[in-house]
Amino acid sequence: MTKIKKSLHTELGHSTPDKITVRGRDLPSEILGHLNLGDMAFLELTGRIPTPQESVTFNAIVVTLVEHGITPSALAARLTYAGAPEALQAAVAAGLCGLGTVFVGSTEGAAKMLYEAIPFGEKPTRPLADMAKDIVADHRARKQIVPGLGHPLHKPIDPRTPRLFQIAAENGLSTHYVALMQAVQEEAERVSGKSLPINATGAIGAIAAEFGFPWKIIRGFGVMARAIGLVGHILEEIDDPMAIEIWQRVEKEAGGPRLD
After folding, report:
1. Any idea what the Cα angle at residue 136 is, between residues 130 and 137, rounded to 5°?
2. How far apart are CA 131 and CA 136, in angstroms?
3. pLDDT by residue (tens digit) across 113-155?
């Protein structure tokens, strides 16, 4: 049984009739007009304002994850809104439920993989190429894909990845985790004979590890960012609907004779 706490406490936020405090800072005077949305997220997660270099890199991470077209999560949001236009928040929530090991959430898997090889705060004890061989061999033995590698559309390079790595390097956030992710890619391509680019979520997982964020929270970056994108999809759905037509076309085609 969980031990009962003597008192309940949060470091995140507190309100009184005339004051709102977030992470020990006065919201109106110290945060509003001073922090952008990415910096505010960083403060909420870490308890401190990011350095200029951290701000550039963290904002690049979350901006990358805002939008990626008519993905399953966007479809889920649009279709839910079509059925319940009185509950925009439910449509956004429906879209966010689809962020997992295939879409967006693989940031978590990539970071976990890298931390298992090199715990945060420690240095590599072996050549990264050897570590990469072990990582790839382990995934192949378990018949699991290596998180953060491959993309159904972006081949041979995910265009987001080089830019993310460039920003991380320019701001001092590219050391052994980024290098190990790149070594893993090289090894995976060598043994498979296939093009397996580091996708954006793989790059983000590596950079998030450079920050030292716990791997269990890194999927949350995608949740925060994609919520913004889904609100954009719902606004477009209001102005230029497609959900009802998608439903009707699927109903018509799926209910007819098979064409294959």
Report:
1. 85
2. 9
3. 999 999 999 999 999 999 999 999 999 999 999 999 987 777 8
